[in-house]
Structures are given as structure tokens and as C-alpha cells.
Design a protein that fits this description.
This protein is mainly α. Helix 1 packs antiparallel against helix 3 and helix 2 runs antiparallel to helix 3. It is elongated. The model has no long low-confidence stretch (mean pLDDT about 90).
């Protein structure tokens, strides 16, 4: 992996923007299925309470994982000064 110098403010802005986009996509999935929380949607999708939700449940799980990874970077980089 290549390393390049970048201003901390730019990196934070890019990271925050990516997290915001992922959050919007998560909310779009929840709104589509009329759920308030990701846990309730994933539970309903996994037990078959809602049909045709499998692809959105997979997408939601991937988005949640990606957001958590980015949040870890954000926390890690906020302490590296």
C-alpha cells in the first residue's frame, strides 16, 4: 500500500463525507421497508417476516460493517496528532 502525505482536515472531511453517505444509504433501506432500527429490520428479514428483503439485508449488513470500519479509522486518527 502506498503512503502519501495529506492534510488532516482534508482526510477528516473525506472520512466524514463517506460516513454520511453510508448513513444515508442505511436510512434509505430502513425507510423503504418502514423500519426504525437496523436490528429490527435484520431480525425481520432473517426470520422471513418480510419477503423479498434478503438483498437489502445483505446490503445493510455490508454498509454497517463498512461504517464501523470507517469509524474505527476516525477514532484512531483523532488521537494520532
Amino acid at each position: 500500500m502506498a503512503t502519501i502525505p495529506v492534510e488532516k482536515e482534508l482526510l477528516e472531511d473525506l472520512l466524514n463525507s463517506k460516513i454520511q453517505l453510508i448513513t444515508q444509504r442505511i436510512n434509505n433501506i430502513l425507510d423503504k421497508w418502514e423500519f426504525k432500527t437496523k436490528d429490527s429490520f435484520l431480525k425481520a428479514a432473517s426470520n422471513g417476516s418480510i419477503e423479498e428483503a434478503e438483498m437489502d439485508a445483505i446490503s445493510l449488513t455490508n454498509l454497517i460493517d463498512r461504517k464501523e470500519d470507517l469509524m474505527k479509522y476516525k477514532v484512531k486518527w483523532s488521537f494520532a496528532e
